[in-house]
Amino acid sequence: MDAPPEIPVTEPVARVLVDSGLPHLDRPFDYAVPAALAETARPGVRVKVRFAGRDVGGFVVERCARADHEGTLTPIRAVVSPEPVLTPAVLALAREVAAAYAGTVGDVLRLAIPPRHARAEKALPDAVVVDTVVADKVVADTRVIAVAADPGPVPVRPAETTAWEPYAAGPAFLRHLREGGAPVAVWSALPSATRPESDWPLALAQACAATAAGGRGAIVVVPDHRDVARVSEALRQVLGPAGHVELRADQGPQARYTAWLKALRGHVRVVVGTRSAAFAPVRDLGLIAVWDDGDDLHEEPRAPYPHVRDLALRRGRIEGAAVLVGGFGRTVAAQAVLASGVGRPVAAAPSVVRAAAPRIVVAGEDREQERDPAAARARLPALALRTAREALARGPVLVQVPRRGYIPCLACQTCRTRARCPACRGPLALGDSGPIPVCRWCAALAPGWTCPECGDRRLRSLVVGARRTAEELGRAFPGVGVITSGAGEVRDRVVPGPALVIATPGAEPVAEGGYAAALLLDAWALLDRTALDASPEALRRWVAAAALVRPAGEGGQVVVCGVSPEVSFPAVEALVRWDPAWLAERELGERVALRLPPAVALSAATGPRAVLEELAGDLRLPPSVERFGPVAQPGRPEWRLVLKAGGDDVPALARTLAQERAARSARKEVVPLGIRMFLTGLD
After folding, report:
1. Number of structural domains found in the chain
2. Residue 379: other Cβ atoms inside 10 A
3. Residue 432 falls within a domain, yes or no?
4. Over pLDDT 90: what percentage of the chain?
5. Dihedral of the alpha carbons of 271, 273, 278, 283, in degrees to the nearest 10
6. 3-state SS, residue 122
7. Residue 622 DSSP label
């Protein structure tokens, strides 16, 4: 990312992207640049301007010699900071993302650029203190930034390519990074519980080092702070203690802005962080890597709701950088990247995968016994208990439970109808404090619950939570330590030795030397989710846990509990064969045939029924765009209208929805209308 260009003082007009928060005003406005601000009001800096009768913030996006319209221009009131925080590359990405997701550039920039922290700007070295000029008077002290010198290429020792050697295309991928190439790769990582020299954080660190050796920067985006810590540790081994910075959501304002400025000023070449790190202003970006792209933490919960994988692909194309999408599994969207020809796979040979993976056994289908449907239905079958008992002599045992809490899901004892709150229709659950069911949504007690279907008042558990599981296993294995990891208390690591580790998906701690065995309880609960991605998401969670177990050659075994041997589940088959690519390819083929994402794009509009019916009638879309609804949403007051488009209709759909939002904003309508695009990531 190059330093901001020098702006001649003869360009007295600044185009400012004003932070108005209104869709119909999401465009630059012309302002006059006072002589006192001619040197500091450069593209990318924050300014204060007068807009609609009040002072608001904004970014200078361009300096020019004349305005687009005749008349007297309002002058810029102040330069908040001469720091060029909005770089040309980030602005280009923000504009493209806003257009693709039917959003506004202002919303994207609020995700991309952290709030200014004056103390961080002053504390960071390589700056010279000068006077702040506001219009024609001196106000306070600020800083004119000195661009850091190019640190030059980072040497990479030959031994640092070890983590990529098991993959057929691994050495070639690193060579492209060192030589300045821009490949797009989908990486199927090997389980490496007992091979720290080929662990995925080290592989990512070596990819960053290869990129830095070619004189370019790198960004690594991971789901949560635990993954940030693991990748940071690997980066310190490869690049040294000061070779990178972290950008995390849990950082304080000053620490976060300081790290962001270090990337902006070129002090470091490598950034590792969570979701918003995808926008990090790394200079000369050469690689953006996304680990575990199926994790829902990569989905931005704020408008316009972009996905990190999509941001990486778009930013890589804009800046000519390589993109690496990796994980133990493979998402359907990542498979679509391969099917489109945009990306290439980086995977190990089947024999290498088999040598690294643990043995997978499905309860009720043990090869050493005949099929036992009763064992498959049991929550803790004899095979699982026997496997855990034998494995505890060699080390810790991981137990994955799909739900947290005590008994988080209840149903009628007689007809199996889900038990729901009489007030809000939320699911009822039991805590460990008493027998009265409580609503998981509104926390209301339901002591007199009666089944609306059959009138029975008795309840049964559908899913047992992590806390109840810890109690059961504690009684089954007296004298063995029980460790829990889940919401509220997520552990990073466990030490070697006998222990039962009860964890919810995504909260599994790393065991030094790997787990001796793992039990995947209530596997049906993940497969039974009413979601399009239920099958690949279940496999993603299973392989993430199984990857922490020792290889089969070292006695590692994973027992899948709670699936019927009489029913074929593709996700279970893919787990047993350790072939996530096969399931992703199968799922993609079915979705192409059924015209479902990621083969097509969807847009969901939510709001009152009358508003959605009016919206459906007003939209001018090609006949090939399919409409579904509006329909009521169970348990919610809003209705939903779904639009489906593919190919060239996708940009037209996003553009039409954005224009509709802008028109309603200009009319000052206060009726809530939410619009969200679900894209393929290939547009």
Report:
1. 4
2. 15
3. no
4. 55
5. -10
6. helix
7. -
| pLDDT of amino acid 141 | 37
Q: In the listed set 141, 166, 182, which residue is the last one of a domain according to the structure?
A: 141
- Residue 673, domain extent: 601-678
Q: One-letter amino acid identity for 182?
A: A
Which of the four pLDDT bands, split at 50, 70 and 90, describes residue 442? Answer: confident
Identify the three-state secondary structure at position 442: coil
Instruction: Report the amino acid identity of residue 553.
Output: G
Q: Which two tokens stand for residue 624?
A: 């090939």
Torsion of CA 170, 171, 172, 175, to 10 degrees: 130
Give the pLDDT confidence of 230-274 residue by residue, as tens digits: 999 999 999 998 899 999 988 989 999 999 999 999 999 999 999
Kindly state the helix (H) or strand (E) to which residue 176 belongs, with its residue range: helix 170-178
- The dihedral built from the CA positions of residue 449, 452, 458 and 463, taken in this order, carries a sign that is negative
Claim to verify: residue 179 and residue 64 sit in the same structural domain: no
What pLDDT digit, counting tens, does each position of 555-564 carry? 999 999 988 7
* Same domain for 339 and 294: yes
Per-residue model confidence (pLDDT) at position 681: 43
Whether 393 maps to a domain, the answer reads yes
Q: Is the pLDDT of residue 143 over 70?
A: no
Pick the last residue of a domain from 320, 336, 352. Answer: 352
Indicate the DSSP class of residue 560: E
* DSSP line for 284-325: TEEEEEEE-TTSGGGB-SSTT--BHHHHHHHHHHHHT-EEEE
Q: Quote the CA–CA distance of 442 and 278 in Å, as a whole number.
A: 35
Q: Which pLDDT band, with edges at 50, 70 and 90, does 445 fall under?
A: confident
Residues in the chain: 683
pTM above 0.85, yes or no: yes
Kindly state whether residue 572 falls inside one of the protein's structural domains: yes
CA distance 95 to 90: 9
Is 70 domain-assigned? Answer: yes
Residue 62 belongs to domain with CATH number: 3.40.1440.60
**Same-domain pairing of 258 and 391:** no
Contact 89, 318 (CB under 8 A): yes
Q: Residue 206: helix, strand or coil by DSSP? A: helix
The tens digit of pLDDT for each residue in 115-128 reads 999 888 888 875 43
245 and 111, same structural domain?
no
Which residue matches tokens 């006077």?
A: 131
pLDDT beyond 70 at 348:
yes
Lowest mean pLDDT, pick from 98-107, 371-380, 577-586, 620-629: 371-380
The CATH number of the domain holding residue 250 is 3.40.50.300
